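About this split. The held-out portion is used to measure sequence recovery: a designer receives only the structure tokens and must propose an amino acid at every position. Recovery is the fraction of positions where the proposal matches the reference. Here is one held-out target exactly as it appears in the evaluation file.
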């Protein structure tokens, strides 16, 4: 995941800390992090304003515009972007500029000279394709470097997220981590309040959806997103679509909550979260048609699937330039179900990547409200209805961390003030008791913090593993009774000339039939060998196979034993099996029994 440092600074005070120190601290105490710079080949590109434009006299679909790039300097430039208007800011590549490995030169188009080139996002490698040039809706002095306008040169943290740390898949999650690592306060952010009202029919028919909240916004105007929003997405490697969809991606990156926007006028009846039915399929936003199965959780209306829940939206209900009414979805889906669904379809998206690693079910409403306010600000419209279906609200797990247990784990006494400060900065609620701390696990850490040892890990990793004193390991002196018995058996049989063998726990039915043994009944669904797919119920077949193997390799006297498990429908047992094979086998067994 890519995180711009300037974005982090909106949530936590990092003033005075070098980017290299931030990356190093995250690597040593959280997750592997590399530092890079968001940059591109962009020499000779400046900010300018369109002061006039007119149709090309001969070139169909072309426009000629006069672009002012300084107080006393203007260029004549030809463009294909027919949506351009007077007064709009643009990025101009001057003659001799180097953009994406190409040198820009003056060119003549049907008898009219173009003294430069207006740049689009695709020409800078920021988009796969662009419908028009980059519109700069921010005020810069004429002639400002294009690199400065686009924010190139920004330090970027490239974070390798481990499966257990899905809480770091957001700007606010990384900011929270840095708040603890550097003991810096989080900044307060303004929140938008929006409660349930109006009529919105939402039904959850599958228990793998723990919460579903819909916000219906009517009267929006779908258009290009502003440059500041596009810039954030580009820095994180996300393409810009339009103002509404870009907001959903922006909140996903900033808050870690995937959102989805449906065109409300393409929805028939109610919204239902359910398993797909046999024969259903969907045209996805990736452009591929996917045949669905019962293991796919979907969002549907009364007649058809609308989206593959937590994975990808459907093309037939997508927001486009003609959309005026939007249903904004925020939901929590079971991580294991989403992983299974995405894998079965061969799809991985930014949304599924987050849902698979757990999202914050408790903050879902707050984050969706922020997105709603941003859509209203950028696309207009009015909230028409809100519905939150949340059958079982999250209840924080309470973990008691005793002072004695902490010392046993770390070899040192717990600094209460340090522990409370660190845990609170990490988002845990805490309270003191006479012999320890009561720690309440927030929803965004419920996936990986399950017990006392996990809380201790949080404290020592923030403090630094290198800060712990070296202490000798505590090794229990008493072995378990069963272990002592097995050790005695092994030593005894070895002293009598028997060799221990270790066999696989699965066998073929054929061998049991030959030996007249009752066949095993527990079948392995993905066996290593096709004909050996049953868990054994006896050690005899395994011992006989070992004996035959030795005989084939010219071992005349075979004396072997195995201490291994056998399996039944109602449980498993550990058994001892012996096999001796030569002319003196009977006599050897009598001696062994007498011993």
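Reference sequence for scoring:
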């Amino acid at each position: 995941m890519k995180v711009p440092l300037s974005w982090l600074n909106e949530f936590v005070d990092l003033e005075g800390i070098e980017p290299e120190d931030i990356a190093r601290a995250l690597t040593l105490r959280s997750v592997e992090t590399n530092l890079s710079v968001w940059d591109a080949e962009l020499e000779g590109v400046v900010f300018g304003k369109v002061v006039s434009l007119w149709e090309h006299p001969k070139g169909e679909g072309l426009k000629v515009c006069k672009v002012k790039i300084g107080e006393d300097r203007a260029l004549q430039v030809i463009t294909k972007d027919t949506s351009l208007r007077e007064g709009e800011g643009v990025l101009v590549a001057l003659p001799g500029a180097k953009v994406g490995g190409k040198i820009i030169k003056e060119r003549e188009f049907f008898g009219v000279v173009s003294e430069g080139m207006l740049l689009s996002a695709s020409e800078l490698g920021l988009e796969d394709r662009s419908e028009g040039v980059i519109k700069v809706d921010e005020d810069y002095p004429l002639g400002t470097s294009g690199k400065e306008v686009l924010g190139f040169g920004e330090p970027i943290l490239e974070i390798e997220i481990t499966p257990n740390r899905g809480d770091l898949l957001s700007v606010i999650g990384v900011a929270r981590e840095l708040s603890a690592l550097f003991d810096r306060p989080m900044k307060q952010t303004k929140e938008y309040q929006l409660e349930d009202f109006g009529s919105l029919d939402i039904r959850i028919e599958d228990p793998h959806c723990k919460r579903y909240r819909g916000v219906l916004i009517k009267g929006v105007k779908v258009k290009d997103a502003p440059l500041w929003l596009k810039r954030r997405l580009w820095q994180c490697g996300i393409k810009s679509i339009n103002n509404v969809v870009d907001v959903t991606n922006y909140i996903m990156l900033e808050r870690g909550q995937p959102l989805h926007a449906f065109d409300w006028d393409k929805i028939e009846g109610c919204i239902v979260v359910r398993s797909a039915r046999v024969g259903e399929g969907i045209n996805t936003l990736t452009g591929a048609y996917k045949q669905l199965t019962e293991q796919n959780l979907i969002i549907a209306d009364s007649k058809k699937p609308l989206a593959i829940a937590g994975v990808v939206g459907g093309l037939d209900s997508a927001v486009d330039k003609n959309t005026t009414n939007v249903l904004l979805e925020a939901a929590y889906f079971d991580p294991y179900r989403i992983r299974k669904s995405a894998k079965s379809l061969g799809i991985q998206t930014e949304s599924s990547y987050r849902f698979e690693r757990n999202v914050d079910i408790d903050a879902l409403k707050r984050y969706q409200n922020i997105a709603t306010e941003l859509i209203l600000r950028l696309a207009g419209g009015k909230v028409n209805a809100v519905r939150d279906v949340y059958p079982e609200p999250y209840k924080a797990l309470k973990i008691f961390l005793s002072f004695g247990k902490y010392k046993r784990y770390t070899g040192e006494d717990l600094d209460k003030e340090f522990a409370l400060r660190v845990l609170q900065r990490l988002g845990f609620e805490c309270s003191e008791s006479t012999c320890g701390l009561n720690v309440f696990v927030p929803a965004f850490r419920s996936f990986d913090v399950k017990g006392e040892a996990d809380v201790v890990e949080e404290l020592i990793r923030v403090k630094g593993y290198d800060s712990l004193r070296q202490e000798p390991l505590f090794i229990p002196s008493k072995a378990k009774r069963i272990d002592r018995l097995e050790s005695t058996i092994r030593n005894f049989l070895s002293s009598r000339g028997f060799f221990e063998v270790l066999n696989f726990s699965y066998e073929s039915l054929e061998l049991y039939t030959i030996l007249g043994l009752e066949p095993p009944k527990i079948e392995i669904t993905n066996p290593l060998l096709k004909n050996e797919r049953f868990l054994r119920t006896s050690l005899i077949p395994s011992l006989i196979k070992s004996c035959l193997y030795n005989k084939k390799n010219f071992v005349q006297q075979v004396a072997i034993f195995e201490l291994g498990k056998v399996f039944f429908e109602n449980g498993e047992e550990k058994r001892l099996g012996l096999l001796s094979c030569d002319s003196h086998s009977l006599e050897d067994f009598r001696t062994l029994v007498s011993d």
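Annotator remark: The mean pLDDT is 92.
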